[in-house]
Design a protein that fits this description.
The chain has 70 residues and is mainly alpha-helical. It has two helices and no strands. Helix 1 runs antiparallel to helix 2 (46-66). The radius of gyration is 19 Å and the shape is elongated. The termini are far apart. The model has no long low-confidence stretch (mean pLDDT 75).
């Protein structure tokens, strides 16, 4: 049973997802690891978690800007 679509893939795609290359994925992994190491070694107490959150937010924003369509 099909879910109400006719003709399979002949319809217009609303959202197209770009593929993340191995180089970009490796760079994001290295940046996240570096941010985690700096946060864990330089910060103490609740500041560690704040550092993790800041690094995560920066990486997310950078990733979204990097992969947007021009």
């Amino acid at each position: 049973m099909q879910s109400g679509r006719r003709g399979g893939r002949s319809g217009t795609r609303v959202v197209e997802q770009k593929k993340l290359t191995k180089g970009k994925a490796a760079l994001l992994l290295v940046l996240s690891a570096a941010g985690a190491i700096v946060s864990a070694t330089e910060l103490h107490g609740w500041h560690v978690y704040l550092g993790f959150a800041i690094v995560g937010a920066i990486l997310l924003i950078g990733f979204l800007i990097w992969n947007r369509e021009s």
